[in-house]
Specification:
alpha+beta; RNA binding; 490 residues; seven-stranded mixed beta sheet; Beta Polymerase, domain 2; Hydrophobic Seed Protein; two-stranded antiparallel sheet; Hypothetical protein af1432; 4 domains; elongated
């Protein structure tokens, strides 16, 4: 297996990383060193563990300070009271307490081991007696390093420093055992490989493929959270490709590998899988800073880019002459997206936003083919609603053609559409379009009681507003009465 480019791949990388980490550990807040001495004086061990240690070796600071200890939760609580911080119960049943003092926040967990019953989604937790035993249950060697406090002794029983130096992701124990104990670690493998730019060690990768279906035993919420972290990472494409290649996506996001359609012999359609991953990358490039409408990382935009064409496999048709069509794939894809996000327990607002983007991602192409009326532009904005800025970016990202002339034409057309939207917004406050008559006025004019007919009238007046723009009170009243007369005749 080739080693990835990495600043720590030089011969002296391990020692350089160790030296860099030692400096960062010595620079820990004084409150942490004091906490270490309190645990030592009470006859207990305390060690910084996991991600903070890994990040320090990589030369990165970490706001998360996770510790492991030989003390049981009650003893930990007593020591934290002497430390003087605010204490909260983060999960006493799992041996975890949290505390904060002078702006320094810590999470402390008793040495433990946990396994999954083959038929259960819940881990069985038991306390351990040694730090090596605790580290052995960690997901990967690069997360199975610790620094004992207050001595700052570096603990690395599984060669995590060496793996970190060579950009390798490997489990502390046999991968089959590790993934069987907690199948979510397979998702974490592709996420960390993507996040850190590491290679998954061959035996570890093989175990993912072998045990991929066991991910079904994990709760949908835990899988969802790991998927969100992957997609919101710096290089989600890499992690998603590994999910597909290792067979994990078949159980987590089966719509993604399904996009690897066989190309027709005349190449009348794009490679949908590659196109989708490219759209994702291009959408990420269009995210904004924190003050913009789509601050990075924007999960709604990214997931919509990933799901926008999932309806194509179910709608592919081979027409006469070898032409391939995917009619209404955006409608089918929106339904599929809603179903998948419901299964993964996404909240309703996120699901609604992503699904709406998938449904609307082709709407613009009618604009590029011919001039839209102001009414059509209003409908575009109204249909997009709160995801209009996301739709702008998804539509632009969806252009992956290698035909530069076509790409320039599409970009120019969308520039023009955005210009018209801005102009209409200034004229009419388009993002809050309402009929010229509200429900109360409709009832007064037509002498109606509240009921479905008022809703019909309101909808008609909204259509009039869309088609013709703002009307005077007199004009709007006449249009309403004309509609009512026609309805009465019918």
């Amino acid at each position: 297996m080739s080693e990835p480019e990495n600043e720590t791949s030089r011969p002296d990388a391990v020692e350089q990383a160790r030296t860099r980490a030692e400096k960062m550990f010595r620079a820990l807040p004084q409150e942490i060193h004091d906490l270490g001495r309190l645990f030592e004086d009470a006859g207990h061990e305390l060690a910084l563990v996991g991600g903070p240690v890994r990040d320090a070796i990589l030369g990165r600071s970490s706001s998360d300070l996770d510790f492991t200890t030989s003390a049981r939760p009650d003893d930990t609580e007593a020591i934290l009271k002497r430390w003087g911080g605010t204490i909260w119960d983060m999960g006493r049943d799992f041996g975890t307490l949290g505390a904060q003092k002078a702006g320094v926040q810590v999470e402390i967990t008793t040495y433990r081991s946990e396994t999954y019953d083959p038929l259960s989604r819940k881990p069985e937790v038991s306390y351990g007696d040694t730090i090596d035993g605790d580290l052995s249950r960690r997901d990967f060697t690069v997360n199975a390093m610790a620094v004992r406090l207050p001595s700052l002794e570096f603990i690395d029983p599984f060669g995590g420093l060496e793996d970190l130096a060579h950009g390798l992701l490997r489990t502390p124990v046999r991968a089959e055992q590790s993934f069987s104990d907690d199948p979510l670690r397979m998702m974490r493998a592709v996420r960390f490989a993507s996040q850190l730019g590491f290679e998954i060690e061959d035996a570890t990768a093989a175990a993912v493929t072998q045990l991929a279906e066991r991910i079904d035993i994990v709760s949908a919420e835990r899988v969802r959270d790991e998927l969100v972290k992957l997609i919101n990472g710096a290089e989600p494409r890499r992690g998603l490709e590994q999910m597909v290649d290792l067979g994990l996506a078949e159980y987590v996001l089966p719509e993604l590998p399904a996009l690897r359609l066989e190309r027709d012999e005349h190449h009348h359609h794009k490679d949908v899988y590659e196109h989708t991953l490219t759209v994702l990358e291009q959408a990420i490039d269009l995210e904004t800073d924190a003050d913009g409408p789509c601050p990075r990382p924007d999960f709604v935009l990214r997931f919509a880019a990933l799901m926008h064409d999932i309806g194509k496999p179910d709608t592919r048709r081979f027409e006469k002459g070898g032409q391939v069509t995917f009619r209404f794939h955006e409608i089918v894809g929106a339904r599929m997206t809603a179903k998948r996000m419901k299964q993964l327990r996404f909240d309703k607002d996120t699901t609604k936003a992503v699904t709406r983007l998938v449904e609307l991602h082709l709407r613009f192409h009618g604009y590029a083919d011919g001039e839209w009326t102001d009414s059509a532009v209003r409908r575009y904005v109204t249909d997009a609603g709160p995801v209009l800025q996301h739709l702008h970016r998804l539509t632009r990202a969806d252009c992956t053609t290698r035909n530069k002339r076509k790409a320039r034409r599409l970009a120019s057309a969308y520039d023009d559409l955005e210009r018209r939207i801005d102009e209409l917004a200034q004229q009419e406050e388009i993002d809050a379009i309402r009929p010229d008559l509200d429900g109360r006025q409709i009832m007064e004019i037509l002498d109606l009681a509240p009921g479905p007919v008022v809703g019909e009238a309101y909808k008609h007046m909204l259509e009039v507003r869309m088609d013709e723009g703002p009307l005077s009170q007199e004009e709007a009243t006449e249009r309403l009465r004309a509609w009512w007369r026609a309805r009465s005749v019918d």
